[in-house]
């Protein structure tokens, strides 16, 4: 093969690799850019079309785990489902954003046990867990909070609010015993990432 042809093949292969990021990811990025262009503290109402683009049908459980998972509402329903009463979403400002009488979800702890964090002996406990949304909103938990603290019994992935599927996306990560529950209430949940502290 001539050098010129060889370079051409390389260029094509390279541009194909660059196109690899999924359509969904591109759409998410476009919407996120719209959000971040405006004041980050303000609640920017999205158009129904843009909101729809942020919805994920599955959440990815990944990072330092033995068994990465893709969880849908249906797969959560096959796990141990818990009922959560009187869950209020309170913003850092003190404003009550939501007041749910009854919700259904699965403990984050059960999800992490299913994925099995890659631990090297019993002193290997310094992990952090990030709940990430399509708009790149994030909440962080620690291994100790989930596995050695009452927070572990109060952190859920919700799929139902007041008898109906959740509205902003299909699954929401919540922590019921936070003082202000808004910050670690992650709607449009996309992934749960487990990383070891380096
Ligand atoms: N994906 C995502 N989740 C989020 C937010 C966000 O911007 N994106 N805002 C948080 C904040 S600041 C609050 S108070 C609660 C309620 O926000 P809402 O008023 O947008 O429903 O959700 C939290 N979860
Ligand atoms: Mo908030």
UniProtKB/TrEMBL annotation:
This is Oxidoreductase molybdopterin-binding domain-containing protein. It comes from the Bacteria. InterPro entries: OxRdtase_Mopterin-bd_dom, OxRdtase_Mopterin-bd_sf. Residues 53-167 form the Oxidoreductase molybdopterin-binding domain. The lineage of its organism: Bacteria, Pseudomonadati, Bacteroidota, Flavobacteriia, Flavobacteriales. It comes from Flavobacterium johnsoniae (Cytophaga johnsonae).
């Amino acid at each position: 093969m001539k050098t010129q042809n060889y370079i051409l093949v390389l260029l094509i292969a390279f541009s194909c690799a660059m196109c690899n990021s999924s359509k969904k990811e591109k759409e998410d990025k476009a919407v996120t850019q719209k959000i971040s262009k405006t004041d980050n503290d303000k609640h920017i109402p999205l158009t129904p079309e843009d909101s729809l683009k942020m919805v994920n049908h599955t959440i990815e459980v990944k990072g330092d785990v033995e068994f990465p998972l893709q969880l849908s509402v249906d797969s959560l329903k096959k796990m141990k489902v818990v009922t959560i009463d009187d869950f209020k979403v309170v913003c850092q400002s003190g404003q009550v954003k939501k007041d749910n009488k009854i919700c259904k979800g699965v403990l984050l702890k059960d999800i992490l046990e299913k994925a099995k964090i890659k631990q090297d002996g019993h002193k290997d406990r310094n992990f952090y867990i990030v709940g990430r949304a399509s708009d790149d909103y994030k909440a962080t938990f620690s291994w100790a909070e989930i596995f050695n603290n009452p927070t572990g019994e109060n952190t859920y992935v919700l799929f139902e609010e007041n008898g109906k599927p959740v509205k902003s996306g299909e699954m929401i990560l919540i922590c019921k015993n936070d003082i202000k529950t808004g910050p670690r209430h992650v709607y449009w949940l996309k992934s749960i990432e487990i990383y070891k502290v380096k």
